[in-house]
Design goal:
With 107 residues, this protein is an alpha+beta fold. It contains two helices and three strands, in the order ααβββ. The protein has a three-stranded antiparallel sheet. This is DUF6788 domain-containing protein.
Length: 107
Amino acid sequence: MSYEPPTPPANLPTEIVNTLNESDPERLRDIATYAEALAEHKEREARLEESADQEEVEERPDDLPDDVPTKAMITIKEINNNRYYYWQWREGEKVRSQYKGPVSPDE
């Protein structure tokens, strides 16, 4: 491990770099956890938006519950080191989720 501090990405705003440089290790870990979760959320939002824009009407999957819209897609969430499938869809500005089941260990 190097004794030199890491070089920040060139596209990171100076204000953010300065704030990070002034933060203690615990806060940096909290920021990293939040940033990773936020990135996943935004990627999921983009996927949901993209799937909502598709004009193709797909057949309703056999395992889709009656109260889940056809446009729903399956996402995987990790909770306490366990992975679970969730149906996820957009209702206006909100993203809704419904539990589907655990991810099998061989997947």
